[in-house]
Specification:
It contains one helix and 30 strands. The chain has about 375 residues and is an all-beta fold.
Length: about 375
């Protein structure tokens, strides 16, 4: 039975800023959500969306120290994830594992009815951060490539730290710190070139290579946005192509080989765009969300891996480019959006602690597939 496409909501007991797709769990639609409460103990919720029945089940609620600001699941290990959080000691960053036997066939529909709060196993701390940890991103490991290993990058205001994960234990391999890096706010691994990474500092975007890790960026885009760049994502199917989102209420597409002008510009929001994320399988699909409490699902064919023609810049609509749907079910800032490991399911999280799971409309799905 195909999903009707009706949104499904899941409510947390506390406010929340971070959510991640459990992409290593490739057979299910699962997401991790971290709470952001002033209470000493916070929570990580593991939720599972059943597309056939259009229900959300909670697989577990785990206690976590401090307010959780960042949460990222490993791309190849189902039980491994990283968090950045604040406690009485200041800013912390740690790797965690779920206790054995977390996955189950059952669940509950609402976290408030789950009586047993479980414990996480801390793998290790990632030390050395002296201020807010603004971003953490895992390298992308595709199915069948798990033997390559993976890496985690953390960004505070002035440092880009690279943590290769060897046999489950991270090792700080290198750190970028140079006079041109300050005000770091976002970053993303390059899925097409090993150990390449892009980062945003204030309104600028720069490209780095962890093999050399010099003090000068390889590629720079100056004043990419009017205001801070809040998010970056790489096109998973088209090398050198990225999207950026910022305080100026626009998302921009770039070809890093031609950094002088954006390929494309999107509006659609009335306040800051906090997230912009490509679909891993169909890169013409893009999600944006922001502090205007909305989520936009776009089809941007002109800068996808199957473009309709050459684009010279500007914000003029091209044939095939469109806003598929604006989702307005949230009542607060939407700080996180994430695609499931499947191509057609996505989730959004707003600050009041509501996760809403949606499907790409069937009409759009059929256009792509047929």
């Amino acid at each position: 039975m195909e999903s009707t496409g009706n949104p499904v909501a899941y409510g947390l007991n506390y406010q929340s800023r971070c959510m991640t797709s459990r992409v290593a769990e490739r057979d299910f639609h699962q997401f991790l959500v971290g709470t952001h409460s002033l209470k000493e103990k916070n929570e990580v919720h593991v939720i599972d969306y059943k597309e056939e029945t259009e229900r959300v089940e909670c697989l577990g609620v785990y206690t976590h120290p401090g307010e959780i600001w960042q949460l990222q699941a490993s791309s190849c290990k189902k039980d491994l994830f990283a968090t950045a959080y604040t406690d009485a000691k200041g800013w912390q960053c740690s790797l965690w594992k779920f206790a054995a036997g977390m996955e189950g066939s059952g669940g509950v529909e609402d976290s408030q009815t789950l009586d047993n709060v479980l414990c996480l196993d801390k793998v290790c701390d990632l030390p050395g951060h002296v201020g807010p940890i603004n971003t953490m991103r895992w390298s992308i490991t595709e199915e069948g490539e798990e033997s390559k290993g993976e890496s985690l990058v953390t960004l505070d205001d002035k440092h880009i730290r690279w943590w290769p994960i060897n046999q489950g234990t991270p090792e700080l391999k290198n750190t970028v710190k140079s006079p041109e890096v300050s005000g770091l706010s976002a970053g993303c691994f390059d899925p097409h070139h090993d150990l390449a990474f892009i980062a945003a500092a204030e309104s600028d975007i720069s490209s780095w290579d962890f093999r050399s890790m010099g003090t000068k960026a390889q590629i720079s885009i100056s004043s990419a946005h009017r205001g801070r760049v809040l998010d970056l994502d790489y096109n998973p199917n088209r090398p050198y192509h990225i999207v950026s989102a910022g305080e100026d209420m626009v998302a921009k597409f770039w070809d890093l080989r031609k950094p002088n002008i954006a390929l494309r510009q999107l509006g659609g929001h009335t306040h800051w765009i906090w997230r912009a994320r490509f679909n891993r399988y169909h890169d013409q699909l893009l999600l944006t969300s922001g502090t205007d409490s909305t989520v936009n699902l776009w089809s941007i064919v002109s800068v996808s891996s199957a473009p309709v023609g050459e684009l010279e810049g500007g914000s003029v609509e091209k044939e095939g480019d469109k806003l598929i749907k604006k989702y307005e079910g949230h009542r607060d800032s939407v700080y996180s959006v994430a695609w499931s490991s499947d191509a057609w399911v996505f989730a959004s999280l707003s600050y009041e602690g509501t996760v809403i799971i949606n499907n790409v409309p069937q009409s759009e799905k059929y256009k792509i597939l047929l």
